[in-house]
Amino acid sequence: MGSESYDEAIAALKKLLSEKEDLAPVAAAKINEITAQLSTLPDSKPAFDPVDRIKTGFAKFKSEKYSANPALYEDLSKGQSPKLMVFACSDSRVCPSHVLDFQPGEAFVVRNVANMVPPFDKVK
Fold first, then answer.
1. Are 113 and 91 in contact (CB under 8 A)?
2. Where are the strands (E) in the chain, listed by range?
3. Per residue in 52-65, is it b (16+ CB within 10 Å) or e — as a string?
4. Which residues belong to the annotated binding site?
């Protein structure tokens, strides 16, 4: 019985109760008991808070990158003149800055769905 799936356990319980209807009150009491026990268990994963994730990411950037190189960010605040432009897919699994090891201000990155760039047409 220990290796049964949830669905198999429920099916077996339903079968037993259809054969022995007098066990229904006992089963209901046990189910209530199990439900109460399960509701007190801690969540297996903490809830994801997207706003908190953004805040902690920005705090990490400030403490690890911005504070480590204030001269770079001072120069970047005056203007930008990247030598590269990269067209990339908007797929969240691939970040061009990470994959190509770009530093802030080094490249313009244009991201769009399917990384599509229309062909150049001199006639239009």
1. no
2. 84-89, 107-112
3. eeeeeeeeeeeeee
4. 89, 91
Which residue numbers belong to the known binding site for Zn(2+)?
89, 91
10-residue stretch averages of pLDDT, the chain, 124 residues long: 77 90 90 89 80 95 94 95 93 92 94 82 77
User: Positive or negative CA dihedral for 15, 16, 18, 23?
Assistant: negative
CA atoms within 13 A on the CB side of 57: 6
**Domain-wise residue ranges, the chain:** 2-40, 80-119
Helix (H, G, I), strand (E, B) or coil at 72: helix
E strand intervals along 4-81: none
